[in-house]
Amino acid sequence: MKKATIKPQKRDQSLVPLSREHHFGLLFCWKIRQGLKNGTDLSLLADYVRYFWDNILKEHCQEEEWLLKRLLPSDSTAQSRLDEEHSLLHDIIELISEGKQLSPELFQALEKDLVEHIRWEERELFPYLQAIVRADELELAGKLLEHKHDVRNDNFTPEFWKAA
Length: 164
What we know:
There is one protein chain. The protein is an all-alpha fold. The protein is 71% helix and 0% strand. Helix 1 runs antiparallel to helix 4, helix 2 runs antiparallel to helix 3 and helix 3 packs antiparallel against helix 4.
């Protein structure tokens, strides 16, 4: 039986910075999975989660929320879902950051929820935006996003995701 392939989405230029960071988010999730597989100390994984939140994910979420508040109707179910999922991710990250009851399952929940969230944004939310928002509004929002968007990099060390 032939495996179904998902065709890459044609992304509007205005959303490319966010899509690019989604790649970093998926890589973050892969690193968490590898860290768990390699038996990495959970406190080191928690340090990495805090680092990634502080340096990449927090601002990324804020930019998405800013952009969508600008482009979507306030009663949009997509807006509600985005806010709810960002809040859930933040809550899990807070639990990990507190470091009181770290468990592999907590990291697995973060990884799973973030992957599902990114997939939803890329496969449903962004195509929906591109379909309902006028091209000139999307272009303006993209220029504003570009103006406030700094390139962010994941330079965390030690590289626990690499096999020893």
